[in-house]
Design brief:
The protein is α+β, with helices and mostly antiparallel strands. Helices cover about 65% and strands about 10% of the residues. It has eleven helices and six strands. The chain has helices at about 15-20, 75-95, 95-105, 110-130, 130-170, 180-205, 210-225, 230-255, 260-270, 275-285, 290, and strands spanning about 10, 30, 35-40, 40-50, 65-70, 180. Strands 1, 2, 3, 4, 5 and 6 form a six-stranded mixed beta sheet that branches. Strand 3 (about 35-40) and strand 4 form a beta hairpin. The protein is elongated.
């Protein structure tokens, strides 16, 4: 039976295996992390895995404990949490590798000419609508342009953070000891990356009315032949981008298991910022071997 390992884990051996072996039951298997360096001392996170784990290990261990280089179980809760957070960060990065790479292929600056098109074409639409209706239309056009502008700003930050994360991740995959100071910087970058990703989803969802009304205005303008041939091509490109934004909106709502736009907005606003810390605390409470054995202090 072969288990596909997360690259940070390997079969436990030496003092690390010996330290945890008494807690192993039946066909359970023991794996250990690479060295985790905290305050100049080296530790390893050692997990006991059920034999049923066949595809990915990650945090699917039944129990875990931190072991020092002398083979002693670490009973200090804070130190254990610090080691577990480093490990949980690696799991998070591995789980989100595809999402990270996908964001690096984005081209946020492609929105810049669209902003210019919307402004230019919007001015022509307003002239056709007259003062009162034109003023109302301008509010929606400005809302759509603001969404695009924020998308460019957030997109730049997301790409910059993503590149930094992927560069650091390649170094981590070499299997060298992990230093807490360096991992803390990576931890912050990952949280900032995910926070900006949430903000980008939020501005998309909150711009719904502006996008709906902008599309309506441009579709009406096309139907009424308010534009010349070249301008029609620009308008159609803007409408196509708007159509794509509605598809992204529906995906965002679905991903958050929401039934309505309002529910999705509420969910995004209330998502936990430090989700790595949240997952770490849950694992510490549920799967720390010394909690189960009644030996924690």
């Amino acid at each position: 039976m072969t288990i596909k390992l997360l690259w940070i884990m390997s079969p436990a051996k030496g003092v690390f295996k010996t330290a945890v072996a008494p807690f192993k039951r039946g066909f359970q298997q023991i794996y250990m992390s690479t060295d985790l360096i905290i305050d100049g001392e080296s530790y390893r996170l050692v997990g006991i895995y059920p034999v049923s784990v066949l595809l990915r290990m990650e945090t699917n261990f039944g129990q875990f404990v931190v072991v020092d280089q002398a083979g002693r179980l670490v009973s200090d809760r804070n130190l254990t949490r610090r080691c577990l957070r480093m490990y949980q960060l690696i799991v998070t990065l591995d789980n989100n590798a595809g999402y990270l790479k996908k964001n690096l292929t984005a081209a946020p600056h492609s929105f810049v000419p669209i902003i210019q098109y919307v402004e230019r074409l919007g001015n022509q639409v307003r002239e056709r609508l007259g003062p009162e209706a034109g003023e109302a239309a301008q509010i929606h056009l400005d809302g759509y342009k603001e969404y695009l502008q924020k998308g460019v700003e957030l997109g730049d930050r997301i790409i910059s953070a993503g590149k930094d994360i992927m560069r650091r991740l390649e170094t981590i995959k070499e299997g060298k000891p992990l230093l807490e100071q360096e991992m803390s910087l990576l931890d912050k970058t990952m949280l900032d990356f995910m926070d900006d990703s949430r903000k980008r989803v939020l501005i998309l969802l909150e711009s719904h009315t502006a996008r709906v009304e902008t599309k309506r205005l441009f579709v009406k303008a096309l139907a009424n032949q308010w534009f010349g041939t070249d301008e029609k091509k620009l308008v159609r490109s803007v409408v196509a981008l708007l159509e794509h934004s509605f598809q992204m909106e529906q995906m965002s709502i679905h991903e958050r298991r929401a039934q309505t736009l309002a529910q999705a907005i509420w969910t995004v606003k209330n998502e936990v910022h430090d989700f790595i810390g949240k997952h770490t605390d849950e694992l510490l409470q549920q799967k720390w071997l010394l909690v189960a054995e009644g030996k924690s202090r």
